């Protein structure tokens, strides 16, 4: 039997706002399958986002959903999770939202290692505002504010997350749709701050300007550049040129913030030292 | 049993007021002269099972207290000047999403970094106009350490009752001075909790006006699922651009406070019955003003003090009434005329309004006010 996505979609809230060919919908389906796999209860799951096309995702999900200010999802989510650690908190948003305006909240959420899962939909561009470059736009690429080609170097989101202290970091792509749910499910089950970067496409504002002839071509690019971490082990640096690793890139067990805080409360109340 | 008495600093008393009101979550970022609030909360909250988090910046601090409030907790942040500027976007978010929370802003010199340890009263306009768009504003301006404690309790009550952020703005003098404080006994001051929904999770809508202008707010994680967004929204919390709904919702959000002004506004009148000169003042300045009024009376000048305790909403109607009796108003304030302008608007030209302005980090002293009284008499 086909998977029943409707169980997790809010009645009456579709169709979504995303353009034909946008990868955000593929990621939402992956998230739904992951929630189902892990067996989360909708009323105990909070989905938090900032602003952007990607950040519209929570509105479609039949959970406790919080669509906040641009870049601030991690900070709002920190309040939710700390106040109610028994809830599962999942953050979603775009690369611009998460790494530009939200960069500070992002790195500090990684550092704290609070048990939340952050799905960054990296389409290399600011989609919602019409295609201005983001910190993830490749150098030289065209965007509405880089008419001569992007002069900025780009962030590697996964490396940034690992460097900042996230204890689970994975990468997938919107092309590899069946892998998304597995990565997200593992991220949710990981105790600590998990980041899942999903390479995504924005045919409307990125593809058009950067000479992709079709959505299919954009998707094929994702297919071509992705190399699973296992396969990469056997590849030479030359072979890895221009490729991007996918799968679970980093995993570590470290004390989780809310658990540590619970111990702090015990100490303050004169309990365990 | 004798009540607990302590010699406390304003900021410390503010924190104790928050705890009395049942605050269980504090998210902050340190800034002088408000840091002691965070310090006391970090020590006291865990003792009562509450949580303190020092966020990476003020934007995050404000965001965290909105997130925590949505799970049902009473939440607080404290800041000063530049920190308040950073919090503005999310204060607007709390306004439109109607999430209760309390913000202490200790007024220091500005704009920008200004005078980090110098007192001012120059954030009262930011309290109303700081975030963009039309929105309700409640701002309390206590004048003593005891009052700061008690007004904190009232701030939480107003936040919970009207589902909106509430600002408490002591000037640096009130926040940093030490005075005797008598702790209220449990139950002595009213403590209000937000209304819980009376409908089932299936029927629940976070902005359902069939329950009036202030619909009950459910908590995330309590079995209720709902959507919260900073976009203009419908009763179910989902975005809309439908003109009639947007207009009605914007008006309702402002009306929540405007229609309940009588409940929210608080002021003190001292010798105004027969006063010909009325001083309108707040915070530490009002203490100099009271002294000046006493001196003036001794010298045969019919002076009185109108002390604002709530700055927003502003007691326009009462000042208009008084303007028919007074020959002049004097408005001493540690800024360049913010309150003066508002009072001028209230009195509609019935009486002249003379400002005394200081932005040099020095308090306004009674002598200055007395001199002004003699000048305008
Ligand atoms: C404070 C603030 N600054 C700017 C904006 C405008 N803005 C809205 S969405 C967006 C970019 C979104 O890009 P991204 O996060 O990459 O998501 P996408 O739309 O590509 O999915 C910007 C700059 C805003 N809403 N708020
Ligand atoms: S503009 Fe781009 S990111 Fe936004 S919905 Fe369209 S394709 Fe997706």
TrEMBL record, chain A:
Keyword Transmembrane part of the UniProt annotation: no
Gene name linked to the record: korB
Highest rank taxon of the organism: Bacteria
Keywords annotated in UniProt: Oxidoreductase
Domain named Thiamine pyrophosphate enzyme TPP-binding: residues: 51-198
Pfam families: TPP_enzyme_C
Protein name: 2-oxoglutarate ferredoxin oxidoreductase subunit beta
Membrane-spanning segments: none
InterPro entries to which the protein is assigned, alphabetical: 2-oxoacid:Fd_oxidoreductase (IPR051457), THDP-binding (IPR029061), TPP_enzyme_TPP-bd (IPR011766)
UniProtKB/TrEMBL annotation, chain B:
Keywords from the named record: Oxidoreductase
Superkingdom of origin: Bacteria
Residue ranges annotated for the Pyruvate:ferredoxin oxidoreductase core domain, each copy included: 275-368
InterPro entries the record matches: 2-oxoacid_oxidoreductase, PFOR_II, Pyrv_Fd/Flavodoxin_OxRdtase_N, THDP-binding, Transketo_C/PFOR_II
Identification of the protein by name: 2-oxoglutarate ferredoxin oxidoreductase subunit alpha
Gene3D superfamilies attached to this UniProt entry: 3.40.50.920, 3.40.50.970
Xref: Pfam families: PFOR_II (PF17147), POR_N (PF01855)
Residue ranges constituting the Pyruvate flavodoxin/ferredoxin oxidoreductase pyrimidine binding domain according to the UniProt record: 16-244
Gene: korA
């Amino acid at each position: 039997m086909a998977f029943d996505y409707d169980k997790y979609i809010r009645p009456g809230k579709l169709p979504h706002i995303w353009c034909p060919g946008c990868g955000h919908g593929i990621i939402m389906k992956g998230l739904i399958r992951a929630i189902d796999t892990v067996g989360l209860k909708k009323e105990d799951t909070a989905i938090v986002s900032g602003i952007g096309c990607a950040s519209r995702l929570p509105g479609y999900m039949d959970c406790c959903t919080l669509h906040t200010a641009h870049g601030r999802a991690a900070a709002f989510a920190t309040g939710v999770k700390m106040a109610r650690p028994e809830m599962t908190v999942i953050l979603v948003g775009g690369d611009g939202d998460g790494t530009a305006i939200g960069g500070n909240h992002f790195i500090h959420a990684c550092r704290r290692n609070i048990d939340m899962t952050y799905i960054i939909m990296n389409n290399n561009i600011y989609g919602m505002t019409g295609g201005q470059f983001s910190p993830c736009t490749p150098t030289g690429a065209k965007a509405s504010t880089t008419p001569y080609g992007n002069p900025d170097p780009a962030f590697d989101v996964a490396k940034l997350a690992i460097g900042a202290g996230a204890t689970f970091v994975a990468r997938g792509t919107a092309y590899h749709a069946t892998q998304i749910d597995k990565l997200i499910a593992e991220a949710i089950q990981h105790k600590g701050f998990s980041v899942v970067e999903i390479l995504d496409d924005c045919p409307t504002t990125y593809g058009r300007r950067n000479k992709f002839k079709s959505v299919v071509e954009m998707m094929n690019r994702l297919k071509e550049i992705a190399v699973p971490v296992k396969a990469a082990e056997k590849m030479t640096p030359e072979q890895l040129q221009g490729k991007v690793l996918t799968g679970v890139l980093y995993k570590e067990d470290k004390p989780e913030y809310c658990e540590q805080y619970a111990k702090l409360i015990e100490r303050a109340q004169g309990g365990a030292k | 049993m004798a009540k607990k008495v302590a010699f406390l600093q304003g900021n410390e008393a503010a924190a104790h007021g928050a705890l009395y009101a049942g605050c269980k979550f504090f998210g902050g970022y340190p800034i002088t002269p408000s840091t002691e609030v965070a310090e006391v909360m970090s020590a006291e909250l865990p003792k009562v099972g509450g949580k303190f988090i020092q966020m990476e910046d003020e934007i995050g601090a404000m965001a965290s207290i909105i997130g925590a409030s949505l799970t049902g907790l009473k939440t607080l942040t404290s800041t000063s000047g530049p920190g308040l500027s950073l919090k503005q976007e999310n204060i607007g978010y709390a306004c439109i999403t109607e999430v209760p929370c309390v913000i202490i802003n200790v007024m220091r010199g500005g704009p920008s970094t200004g005078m980090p340890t110098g007192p001012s009263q120059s954030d009262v306009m930011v309290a109303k106009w700081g975030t963009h768009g039309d929105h309700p504003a409640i701002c309390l301006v206590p004048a003593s350490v005891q009052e700061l404690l008690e007004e904190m309790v009232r701030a939480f009550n107003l936040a919970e009752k009207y589902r909106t952020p509430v600002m408490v703005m002591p000037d640096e003098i009130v926040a940093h001075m030490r005075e005797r404080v008598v702790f209220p006994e449990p139950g002595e001051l009213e403590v209000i909790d937000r209304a819980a929904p009376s409908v089932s999770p299936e029927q629940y809508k976070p902005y359902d006006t069939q329950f009036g202008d202030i619909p009950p707010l459910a908590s995330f994680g309590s079995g209720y699922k709902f959507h919260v967004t900073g976009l203009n929204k419908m009763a179910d919390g989902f975005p809309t651009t439908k003109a009639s709904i947007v207009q009605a919702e914007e008006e309702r959000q402002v009306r929540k406070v405007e229609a309940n002004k009588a409940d929210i506004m608080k002021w003190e009148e001292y010798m105004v019955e027969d006063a010909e000169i009325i001083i309108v003042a707040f915070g530490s300045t009002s203490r100099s003003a009271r002294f000046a009024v006493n001196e003036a009376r001794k010298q045969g000048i019919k002076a009185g003090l109108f002390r604002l305790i709530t700055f927003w909403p502003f007691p326009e109607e009462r000042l208009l009434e008084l303007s028919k009796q007074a020959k002049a108003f004097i408005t001493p304030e540690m800024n360049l005329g913010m309150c003066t302008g508002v009072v001028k608007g209230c009195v509609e030209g019935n009486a002249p309004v003379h400002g005394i302005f200081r932005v040099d980090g020095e308090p306004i002293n009674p002598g200055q006010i007395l001199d002004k009284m003699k000048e305008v008499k």
